[in-house]
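A student in our group prepared the protein record below, which I am reviewing. This is what I was given:
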Amino acid sequence: MELIILKSKIHTVKVTEANVAYNGSITIDADLLDAAGIKKYEQVYINNAVSGSRIMTYVIPGKRGSGEVCMNGGAALHAKVGDTVHILAFIHLSEEVAETYQPTLVFTEGNNQIKSVEKYNY
C-alpha cells in the first residue's frame, strides 16, 4: 500500500502578484522551489492563511532571488497581493519508507527570502 505524505512545504510566503489574465498556475521564485525540492509543473496545494481558501495547481519557476509568488489564472481569484500562503507538495511512498521520511520545510523572511531549510522532526 502507498500513502500520500507531505514532501515539502514553503511556509508563510506573501503573494506578490495576482494575474487572473494568465493561463493558470502559480509562479514561485526558483530559489524557493529548489530549497523545497519542488519541480516545475509539479502539482502543489496552496493554503491561504488570510481567507482560508485552499486550491491545487501547478508550479512555474520564477526569477531567482526575486521573492516572486504570483497567483495566475483562476488561482488569482483565491488570493490577493499581500496574502500569506503556505505551499505544499506531496509524494506517494510505501508504508515502510513513510515511517522514516522527513519532509522539507522552507521558512522565509521579508520579501519571501529563505531564512532556513529544515526537515520535519516529529
Q: What stands out?
A: Strands lie at 2-14, 17-19, 25-29, 43-48, 54-62, 69-72, 84-94, 104-109, 113-119. The first helix runs from residue 30 to 36.
